[in-house]
Amino acid sequence: MSPSKHSWPEGYSTHVVPVIRGEFLVSDDPDVVLSTVLGSCVSVCLFDPNFGIGGMNHYLLADASEGEATSLKYGANAMELLINNMLKRGASRARLQAKVFGGSRMSGRFADIGPRNVEFALRYLAAEEFPVVGRDLGGAEARRVNFHPATGKARVVHVTGTVEPAIAAPPPPRPSARPTPAGGVTLF
């Protein structure tokens, strides 16, 4: 997977790397931004603020059916692989912090998938004693999430009028320290 390169307004460049459904990525590169689009799916972004490393997963369903427990589309496996890969690269379990995004009710027929994904993520993080320091969960809209793993900063844009989100990684604006009220953008 090759990242797309975008120039940010301040003259430095960053690599936007998409995290698609059923994947996870870990990075300590200060020029990398992980990006995904979520509907009923959930992304958990973990980071070690002292070591400057973080990662993002994107899982589709909270619970695995028999025989599919090792698939990354399920929450438990997506979480274990994200955590283990971060620890292998030097993160400290005691310092890991989480930001959680997604879990919308995208359609009537599958309306319970998003809330179940959210409940799983929050229950899992509580059991592992990882503090949730940011969240944007639920609702009925898709959202685009950009996560800077080296700093733990995240940006969320709500995508209105969507039924099923498409994966896209447009160039993100430079993150600021405070939320932007217009346009459904929230910074964490």
Automatic annotation (TrEMBL):
Biological processes per GO annotation: chemotaxis
Molecular function in Gene Ontology: protein-glutamine glutaminase activity
Biased composition (Pro residues): 168-178
Catalytic activity entry: L-glutaminyl-[protein] + H2O = L-glutamyl-[protein] + NH4(+)
Residues covered by region (Disordered): 165-188
UniProt keywords, alphabetically: Chemotaxis, Hydrolase
Record's keyword annotation contains Hydrolase: yes
Enzyme class: hydrolase
EC number annotated for this UniProt entry: 3.5.1.44
Classification via Pfam families: CheD (PF03975)
Family recorded in the similarity comment: Belongs to the CheD family.
Its biological purpose: Probably deamidates glutamine residues to glutamate on methyl-accepting chemotaxis receptors (MCPs), playing an important role in chemotaxis.
UniProt-recorded name of the protein: Probable chemoreceptor glutamine deamidase CheD
Provenance organism: Pararhodobacter aggregans
